[in-house]
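A further point concerns the way the authors explain their paired sequence and structure data. Nothing conveys this as quickly as seeing an actual entry. An entry of this sort, consisting of the sequence and the corresponding backbone structure tokens, reads as follows:
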Amino acid sequence: MPPTTNDNRLGTKSVPEESAFRRAYDGAYLERFAGTLSRIGMYEMGFRPAGTEAGHRAGAAIEAEMRRIGLADVRREPFPVYAWGFRGASIQVRTPGGRTVAASSFPPTPGTPPQGMAAELVDVGLGTAADYDGRDVRGKLAFARLDVNVMRWMGVLAYEAELHGAAGVVFYDLNGYAQHPSGDALNTHDGMCRDTIPVLQISVNDGRYLAQLLEGNPAVPVTLTSHVDAQPAGTGHNVIGILPGLRYPGRFITVG
């Protein structure tokens, strides 16, 4: 069977009607509006999860724009969601000359007290069960490198740390997964985490900095701070608008 021709690298078959539909997109307009949405966040680094104040502002902006460009039956449809409000995180190294590194986190992991969590950071390698042999992390913070070829989800890495009594997890991506080539970017993605202990991701370069500090040291004192406002019974919204068809008004194309 010959390979299927893809029109837009999205994995859908190329058909004339779909090709015409996609050619009608105004890429510059989409880029401008994406920029508008990207400036809406919980704090200066972004974050607008569903059900949060920033998420509601983004939904209102989308609804207003749909009305402005003439879509019909524009509405916001509510759905229940764990509203995880995140306002930044950091790890302060409490050794002479130690610096503070920025971090991101994952819903629905909890935050820390406002003054932070003072604890020892312990290197646990890739964070597998075998990596904890001979290492005591009870009440401490596990520092790990996430290798997606060994452990696909950081939630599994975090649960392994939790099973060994860790009070929190700090990690960075060993493979550069979802990372900018500079090594300085923070990111957050589908963590599949539990709402039990703080889980913080740092940039690749900051991860290498902490790894270097831990070389030859059983632990390094740090203060972990994560600002989270969680509302488990929150409400999110899907924003719906319709551009009525002229030739086939009873047929629909869904774009998300």
About this structure: Residues 151 and 157 are 7 Å apart (CA to CA). The two ends are 31 Å apart (CA to CA). Confidence is low (pLDDT under 50) at residues 1-9. The first helix runs from residue 16 to 23.
